[in-house]
Fold each of these.
Amino acid sequence: MKMWDERYSQYDFVYGKNPNQYFKSVIDKLEPGKLFMPGDGDGRNSIYAAKQNWKVTSVDFSSVAVDKAKQIAEQENVNLEIINADLSNYDYPQNYFDAVGVVFLHMQSPEKEVIHSSIANSIKPGGAIILEVFSNNQLQHGSGGPRNKNALYSLEEIGEYYKDFDLIELDEKIIELNESQHHQGQASVVRLYGIKK
C-alpha cells in the first residue's frame, strides 16, 4: 500500500493520461452501460470510459490514487463513482455490470483467485470482460510489472478464471508499451476479451 501511495503522490499521471490501448480498442466497440474498473489507480481508463457515456465504478486501494482520480475527473468534467477499497474484501454486486476492464491488475495468491472469481461473478450474462495483464514471461523484460512470478499470469490461468465466458480473444503476445516511465518498452502480456454466457 505504501509503495502505491508514494508512487501516485510523485507523478502527475503514473501510467500516462491516455487509456490503455487494448482496453480502448475493445470498449470503443461496445454499447455504453455499467462499467467496473478494479484497480484503475488515478483513473485514466475510467475517465476515458466515462467520457464515452459509460456509467463507471472505479475501485482502488490507494487513497492517494483515488483522490487524484477524483480531482482529474472534476477537472475533466466527467461523472463517475470512485471508491477507495481493498478488492480482496470489496462487496461485489452479482450479475450487474455490462463490462469490466482489468488493466495490469496484479496481486499474489490467494487474493488473485478470490478477486478474479468476484470480478467474473459481477458481470451479467451478455456482459464483457476486457483484460490485459503481464504474463509469466514478463520476467524476461524490463518494461514494468511485478518481479514475482506468483503475481503474474499464464494463459491457462486467465482462461480458467473466465471459463464461463465465450472467448472472442485469449492470447499471449509481445507488445510495445508506452505508458509513462513505469510501462515502457517490449512487454509480454495476456489479453482477454470475452462475453459471459
Note: Residues 63-76 form the longest helix (14 residues).
Amino acid sequence: RGEQLSHVLPDGSEVKLNAASAISYQPYWWRFKRELSFEGEAFFKVKKGIAFKVISKIGTTEVLGTSFNVSTRNKGYSVLCSTGRVKVTENINGKEVIIEPDMMAILNTEGLQVEKEVDEALLLGWMLGKFNFNAQALLYVFEELERQYDIVIVTDRKKAIKLSYTGFFKRTNEPELSLDLICRSFGLNFVKQGDNTYKVSQN
C-alpha cells in the first residue's frame, strides 16, 4: 500500500506493480517454467521465450513475448493487451479468449468477455500517477485512495457502493485534496482521525 514498485524477473522481463499488489514465483525454476502467482494490478513487459503465465484466483493470462496489464481488483479480472497477443483463460470452466493490442478481456459474474478499441492511455494512467474513473462505485474509488495513499477511509459502505463517481485524481495530490475533490461531488465531508484515518459522512 502507498507505493508502486518495479521488478525485473530472472529472464529480464519487467513488472511494474501498482499499490497493494503482489507477485510470487520460483526463481530457480524460472528458466524451465516462466510462471508466477499474482493479485492486484500490474503491467508486464515480457521477453520472448517459453510460455509465460500469470496465475490469479479466477483467471490465467499466457503469452510468449508481449506487454499487457492485469487487474484483479474489485472481485473481477481484466487484461489489457498493449503489444503482441495474449491468451486469457477462466480458471473455473477453462473458457479462453485471445486478445490483441487495444483489446481487453474482462472476467466477472457475467463470464469472460472482450472489449475492442479500449482507451489504453486512460487504463494505464496509473503508471503515470493518474487515476480515472468512469461511472465507478464510490466505494471502489475510496478503496483505490486507500491503496495509493496507504490510508484508511471510514464510511457507510452500503451507501458508498450505490453511488457512482466519474472523475480523476493524481497520486501527487495530498490525500486531503483528492478526498475533497471526490466528496464535494456528493455533498460529503471528511474529518481526519489519527495519522492515516479519515471519516467520511453526509453534511
Note: The radius of gyration is 18 Å.
